[in-house]
């Protein structure tokens, strides 16, 4: 269908690019310790962007056939009449890097096999007084992108996620603060998940179960929170308030808008010399790996921070054109709407290959608790992503955090808040944990910081 669309646009003397994608998704849901639903869905469609008289128009459709193609072109041209002017240049044909994105074991897995995975995780996490929820999702996609300049690319991909959460309301063991007893309003939820291109191995499922079970066991005892400027460990799950500002600041759109605090600091030592941040779309079997972006740009590694030095920002075609820069291959689009900037596999530090991280994670908090006399392990904060995130400042109540005394985790804390500034904290990292892992499309270890503000609420 893409070739037909591009031919129609060429015949009018205009330029265009298009993306076609078909995705089959299977979802199995266990809720309250039983199978709630299991089913499959499929979606296919095409997104067309035309450049007419220096203006961009967008149209999308889930219909197929020659008649649909002609109508889609007409709608895109009509949209261009109202579009903003932009000097957009579509990429010519280029070789694509070899990236493993399709795994037959995942694509061929039966519904019964996915149900078996979910049931196994659920049964292993069963605990008296707790509700266990497990979701298994498998997707199989085909993507084709092309343009009137000759650029093109196509690939198949698979994706699998297994998420598990355990919830307990109103019960718990007594702690220093007096833990929640029966009938109390204490609510505890511990969750974790596996995400990858292939089905998880037994080791990876065991690691998921151990992660949830370990953190749940540590959280059953409620203790008094500390206060003051203290050592705080942010686990891979708890790093969001530190990494979200960077994700926004390294977007070419933020640079173009003049709101990125890093815009004028390329080549400067801004962060701790041991800190690196990379977006890697070509890592084998990565959660968001792909050989080409949704605008036909061949995938390549983007080194945002290298040993503390700011190196580059990420762009899609339109933002790069407006900023007089070059696309870094970070365009993403859906069936409807215009392309936008999106990260792929964001990696903190050396990454999974160089660090040699296997499917079984290191001890909770990456072995960083041993030298802490009094401090906190942050696994989840409430309200992350709200407010002026790009500025780096944050102050959030804890959702799930643990107190550390003399190197030992005493239990979970409630009614506490953590505050700081991401840019300032990442200038001085006390230690890196040995628990580097994928959490969604982000790979990171736990990080330890000194002098973080902890307050009681």
Task: State the helicity in percent bands.
Answer: 10-25%
Q: What is the arithmetic mean of pLDDT?
A: 92
Instruction: Compute the number of structural domains.
Output: 2
The amount of beta strand, in percent, is 35-45%
- Which residues form runs of ≥5 with pLDDT under 50? 172-183, 354-360
Strand order of the largest sheet: 3-2-1-4-5-6
Structural class by sheet pairing and helices:
alpha+beta
Q: State the shape.
A: globular
Distance between the termini: 59 Å
Rg measurement, Å? 24 Å
Task: Describe the main β-sheet briefly.
Answer: 6 strands, antiparallel
Number-wise, the strands total: 22
Question: Could you please describe the fold and organization of this structure?
Answer:
- The protein is an alpha+beta fold and 457 residues long.
- The chain has helices spanning 2-11, 66-80, 104-107, 111-125, 202-219, 240-249, 252-257, 317-323, 351-355, 422-425, and strands spanning 15-31, 34-52, 55-61, 131-147, 152-169, 187-196, 222-223, 228-234, 277-279, 302-306, 309-310, 331-332, 340-341, 346-348, 374-381, 393-405, 408-413, 416-421, 431-432, 437-439, 442-444, 447-456.
- The strands form four sheets. The chain has a six-stranded antiparallel β-sheet with strand order 3-2-1-4-5-6. It has a six-stranded mixed β-sheet with strand order 11-10-9-14-21-20, with no helix packed on it.
- Helix 4 (111-125) packs parallel to helix 5.
- The model is unreliable at 172-183 and 354-360 (pLDDT under 50).
């Amino acid at each position: 269908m893409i070739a037909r669309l591009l031919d129609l646009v060429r015949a009018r003397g205009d330029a265009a690019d298009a993306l076609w994608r078909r995705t089959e998704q299977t979802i199995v849901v266990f809720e309250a310790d039983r199978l709630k639903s299991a089913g499959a869905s499929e979606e296919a469609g095409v997104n067309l962007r035309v450049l007419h008289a220096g203006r961009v128009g967008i149209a999308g459709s889930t219909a197929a056939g020659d008649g649909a193609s002609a109508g889609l072109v007409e709608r895109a041209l009509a949209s261009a009449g109202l579009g903003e002017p932009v000097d957009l240049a579509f990429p010519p044909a280029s070789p694509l890097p070899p990236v493993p994105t399709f795994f037959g074991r995942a694509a061929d897995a039966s519904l019964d096999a996915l149900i078996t995975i979910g049931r196994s995780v659920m049964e292993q996490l069963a605990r008296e007084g707790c509700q266990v929820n497990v979701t298994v999702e498998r997707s199989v996609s085909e993507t084709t992108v092309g343009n009137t300049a000759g650029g093109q690319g196509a690939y198949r991909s698979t994706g699998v996620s297994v998420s598990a959460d355990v919830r307990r309301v109103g019960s718990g063991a007594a702690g220093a603060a007096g833990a929640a007893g029966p009938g109390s309003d204490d609510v505890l939820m511990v969750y974790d998940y596996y995400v990858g291109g292939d089905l998880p191995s037994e080791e990876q499922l065991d690691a998921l179960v151990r992660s949830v079970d370990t953190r749940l066991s540590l959280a059953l005892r409620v203790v008094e929170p500390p206060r003051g400027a203290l050592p705080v460990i942010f686990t891979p799950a708890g790093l969001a308030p530190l990494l979200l500002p960077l994700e926004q600041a390294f977007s070419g759109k933020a640079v173009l808008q003049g709101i990125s605090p890093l815009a004028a600091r390329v080549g400067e030592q801004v962060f701790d010399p041991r800190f690196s941040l990379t977006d890697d779309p070509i890592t084998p079997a990565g959660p968001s790996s792909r050989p080409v972006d949704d605008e036909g740009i061949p995938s390549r590694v983007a080194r945002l921070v290298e040993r503390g030095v700011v190196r580059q920002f990420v762009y899609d075609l339109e933002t790069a054109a407006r900023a007089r820069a070059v696309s870094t291959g970070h365009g993403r689009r859906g069936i409807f709407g215009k392309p936008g900037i999106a990260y792929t596999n964001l990696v903190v530090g050396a990454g999974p290959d160089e660090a040699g991280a296997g499917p079984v994670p290191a001890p909770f908090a990456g072995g960083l608790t041993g030298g802490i006399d009094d401090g906190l392990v942050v696994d989840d904060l409430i309200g992350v992503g709200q407010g002026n995130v790009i500025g780096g400042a944050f102050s959030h109540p804890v959702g799930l955090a643990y107190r550390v005394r003399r190197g030992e985790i005493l239990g979970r804390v409630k009614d506490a808040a953590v505050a700081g500034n991401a840019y300032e904290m990442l200038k001085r990292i006390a230690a890196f944990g040995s628990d580097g892992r994928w959490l969604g499309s982000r790979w990171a270890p736990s990080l330890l910081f000194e002098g973080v503000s902890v307050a009681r609420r």
